[in-house]
Amino acid sequence: MPTVLRVDGFQVRIFPNDHPPAHVHVFKGGAAIVIELGTASRPPRIREISGMTRPDAVKAVTLIEEQQILLRRKWEALHG
Q: How far apart are CA 57 and CA 71, in angstroms?
């Protein structure tokens, strides 16, 4: 599972053998959150949280929203 982005202690990863819809796994410390990538008409949304604080979850979603174009390109490069 390659780390495709590192920012402020967050590691954003995409599993090469993962399933649609397009999403990323974000880790910080021992916590994790899975966020579905948004579209032109829908913002990213949380699918799962494991141990992440609310403030960190908000920061993670904001990070994914800001980097959505890059992350969608990386998702498509791995999944076609």
A: 17
Please give the Cα distance from 15 to 56 (Å, whole number). Answer: 22
Check: CB of residue 46 under 8 Å from CB of residue 33: yes
- pTM of the predicted model as reported, rounded to 2 decimal places: 0.94
Compute, in degrees rounded to 10, the torsion defined by CA atoms 76, 42, 35, 48: -140
Q: How far apart are the first and last CA of the chain?
A: 16
The model's confidence at residue 39, banded by pLDDT at 50, 70 and 90, is confident
| Amino acid type, 75 | W
Which one-letter DSSP state was computed for residue 22?
P
